Amino acid sequence: MATEWLDKLRTARKTCLVQDGRKKVHYTFQDGLEMAEEYDVRSNEIIVRKWRKKSSLGVEKWEYEIGEELMPRNVESEGLVESSSNPIFVRRDTKDAYQWRVRNLPYPSDTYLVSVDQNQIVIKTTNKKYYKKFSIPDMDRAKCPLSQQNLSHGYANNTLIVTYKKPSEILAMEKSVQEELLKIKASKDGDVECNPS
To answer: Residue 33 to residues 12, 51, 163: CA-CA distances in angstroms?
Structure first.
């Protein structure tokens, strides 16, 4: 199941750079799609995965699958900006689990209901103030069905933490991806050749 995705990764054009304690890998697939990943150099845990997408206006921008954009917002150039008290939904993965954090949720911990429905995870509140339905792209790419028994959640400091334990097929696939990444020669920050014209 996961072999299609692994083959796609193997045949992609890859470049790698080690910078600021992160191993940054850029993939260009045969169909023209681009993906960038960042791994912690010490733990090899993925910090960021983003895809280059075109907006409806034709402007290319990065869409984050894991992690979040850490750039400060410029209110003057953006015009309207969402409230800082709105819920913020961010994916952070660990070695053995997928994890999502929903910040700015002020309701008591027994308000949250988290379940699997039609191969998607559903977060809802009993007071009907928050609802989110999402899939796990990694599981979709590997064609693995979701299971309620792998799903758990916790709540602390106005943050709901949803965790989905990775199945053995995904752990094996991630190990293969790490082995592939070891084959790539990574340049260090500042190693780029500069040929003045």
So the answer is: 10, 8, 29
| Residue 83 CB coordination number (10 Å) | 6
Place of tokens 């191969």: 119
Q: Provide the residue type at 183 as one letter.
A: K
What mean pLDDT is predicted for residues 170-189? Answer: 83
Closest CA to 121 of 111, 109, 135: 135
Q: Are 25 and 66 in contact (CB under 8 A)?
A: no
Distances (CA, A) of 123 to 34, 115, 155, 162, 165: 30, 7, 13, 9, 17
Listed in order, strand segments (DSSP E) in the chain are 13-19, 22-28, 34-40, 46-54, 60-66, 88-91, 97-103, 112-117, 120-125, 131-134, 151-156, 159-165, 187-188
For 2, 42, 126, 142, 146, the CA distances from 137, given in Å and listed in that order, are 12, 25, 27, 9, 11
- CB neighbour class for 98 (10 Å; exposed up to 12, middle 13-18, buried from 19): buried
Q: pLDDT at position 55, please?
A: 73
**Residue 5 pLDDT:** 85
State pTM to two decimals.
Answer: 0.82
Does 162 have pLDDT greater than 50? yes
Q: 196: burial class by Cβ within 10 Å (0-12, 13-18, 19+)?
A: exposed
Q: How many CB atoms lie within 10 A of CB 173?
A: 22
Q: How many CA atoms lie less than 13 Å away from 117 in the CB half-sphere?
A: 9
